[in-house]
Amino acid sequence: MNKYKHEFTVVSASESQETLDYVNRVLKERDIEFAAKPLETSRFQVENIKFAYVFYEDGLEVNVMYTVDDPKKRAVGFKLSEGMEVPKELEGKFKFARQKSKLAGTIRGSFFVIKREY
Fold it and tell me: In a designed cystine with 4, which of 43, 46, 106, 114 is the match (CB 3.0 to 4.6 A)?
């Protein structure tokens, strides 16, 4: 369970093309397209917030948090697993801050605010 009282589950990326398409459409807002292979995804809604996650084979995690009724609370987050280099697609575009994670140890993360409607 996470702070939203939702049991987090993932499915194979090969079984979740709709989630991959959605996340890729949002990433195009910043002209971002990852070369790494997506392995797993998760997509769910808790109250008025839609969530989508993609986990890549190189250790990158991308998440979209999209509040349905508040355009000011919509963002894409990037998490780099411990020891991972910044992917070339994000190099120089984002600054990554260190974060402590109960599950993953010390990770680095960054984000951007979503401007468009999805």
Answer: 46
Residue 30 in any domain: the answer is yes
- Establish if 1 belongs to a structural domain: no
- Could you report the per-residue pLDDT of 9-20, keeping only the tens digit for each? 999 999 999 999
Question: Which residues on neighbouring strands pair with residue 50, listed in sequence order?
Answer: 45, 66
User: Are the C-beta atoms of 41 and 72 separated by less than 8 Å?
Assistant: no
Question: Considering the domain boundaries, does residue 118 fall inside one?
Answer: no
Element (H, E) at 79: strand 74-80
* Helix spans in the chain (H): 17-27
Examine residue 78 and state whether it is found in any structural domain, yes or no: yes
